[in-house]
Write a structure and sequence with these properties.
This protein has helices spanning about 1-10, 90-105, 120-130, 180-185, 190-205, 205-220, 220-240, 245-265, 285-290; strands at about 15-25, 25-35, 55-60, 80-85, 140-145, 155. It is an alpha+beta fold.
Length: about 290
C-alpha cells in the first residue's frame, strides 16, 4: 500500500521490491519483502552527482554514527549520510552539508524557503504520509538529496520509506505535521500549502479507484499468491486469521474513509485570506494581510 501511494503522489523514486521465500540452513522462515536500499545510482535509485552530490537522512539514531551534522530546530533528529559514505566524507563536505542544513532549517521560518527546497517533492512526501495516516513520520526516515554543491541545486525529498505504522491516525493528520512540516504549513509564503492542496485536488477523484486497482493487481501476481500462502501457514501454526484478500478489504476501507476526511480538511485548509492554515479567516489574518500590503 505504501509503495502504491508513493507512485500515486509522484515521488521521485519508488524502491523496487518483491516478496521472496526465505530459507536459512534448510529451515523455511516464511515470505519476506526484499526491497532496494537507499543508494546513489545514475540510472535508478537516487541520481546525485558522483563527485559533488549528497544523500542524507534526518535520523533519530544519529548517535550510532561517527559522522553527522546537527539540526538546529530538532536536535534529537540530526542528519546522517547515505552518500558519500560516512568513512569517505571529507571535513570540507561535512562543513558544506552542515551549512546547507542550517540554511534550510532557518529558511522555514521565513518566506525564502522556496529558494532552498524543491517544494513539490516536500508536498508530495507529506501528502503521501497523510494519505497513509502514518504514526511514525515525525522524525525517522526523512531522506533528502542535493544533486550537487551548486546554489542551483535544491534539497529534494525523493522517497517515502518505512510503512510499518500506516493507517494509524484515523481522523487526524499523520505524525509528520511537526517540526519542519509544521513550519511549512504555517509559513506566510503559501507556495508549499498551494502545492500540497493542488496535488491532492489532482488525486482526490481517482485515488480510491487507482489505489484499489493497485492492490487488486498485486493479489493476482505471483507475489500476491506467495504472501497469501504464507498467511495460510501462519493460520495453521499461530492461529492468525489473515489473507491477502482480507487485507485488501481493510486497505480499501481505510482509503475510502481517508479520502473523505482529507478532502474535507484540505478544502478548509486555506480559504482566501487564511494565513495560518487553520481554515478560518479571522482578525489575525486580516492584520497580517494589512501589514503585508
Amino acid at each position: 500500500a505504501g509503495f502504491i501511494v508513493s507512485e500515486l503522489v509522484g515521488m521521485t523514486w519508488v524502491p523496487g521490491h518483491r516478496f521472496v521465500n526465505v530459507i536459512i540452513n534448510n529451515d523455511y522462515k516464511g515470505v519476506y519483502l526484499l526491497c532496494e536500499s537507499v543508494k546513489r545510482n545514475p540510472d535508478c535509485r537516487l541520481n546525485v552527482d558522483k563527485n559533488t552530490g549528497y544523500i542524507f537522512e534526518c535520523d533519530p539514531y544519529w548517535w550510532n554514527e561517527d559522522v553527522y551534522v546537527n539540526s538546529i530546530t530538532a536536535p534529537k533528529y540530526n542528519f546522517t549520510f547515505k552518500y558519500p559514505d560516512s568513512d569517505e566524507i571529507t571535513s570540507e563536505q561535512l562543513d558544506y552539508i552542515q551549512a546547507v542544513v542550517t540554511r534550510y532549517e532557518n529558511s522555514l521560518t521565513t518566506e525564502n524557503y522556496p529558494q532552498y527546497i524543491d517544494v513539490e517533492s516536500f508536498a508530495a512526501w507529506c501528502l503521501a504520509h497523510d494519505i497513509l495516516g502514518t504514526q511514525d513520520a515525525g522524525g525517522a526516515n526523512r531522506y533528502y538529496t542535493k544533486y550537487d554543491s551548486t546554489d542551483a541545486s535544491k534539497i529534494v525529498m525523493p522517497l517515502v520509506w518505512d510503512f510499518d505504522m500506516c493507517e494509524r491516525t484515523n481522523n487526524a493528520w499523520s505524525k509528520c505535521h511537526i517540526n519542519h512540516m509544521s513550519q511549512l504549513f504555517n509559513n506566510s509564503n503559501r507556495k508549499f500549502v498551494d502545492a500540497y492542496a493542488g496535488l491532492w485536488r489532482k488525486l482526490e477523484d481517482t485515488i480510491i479507484q487507482e489505489f484499489s486497482q493497485g492492490l487488486s493487481d498485486f493479489s493476482s501476481y505471483q507475489d500476491g499468491f506467495a504472501v497469501n500462502s504464507s498467511f495460510q501457514l501462519d493460520r495453521i501454526v499461530w492461529g492468525y486469521d489473515l489473507s491477502v484478500y482480507g487485507s485488501i478489504i481493510m486497505h480499501n476501507d481505510w482509503m475510502s474513509s481517508r479520502q473523505s476526511w482529507l478532502s474535507t480538511k484540505i478544502a478548509a485548509m486555506n480559504p482566501q485570506g487564511d494565513t495560518n492554515v487553520d481554515g478560518v479567516v479571522n482578525l489575525d489574518d486580516l492584520t497580517f494581510l494589512i501589514n503585508v500590503l
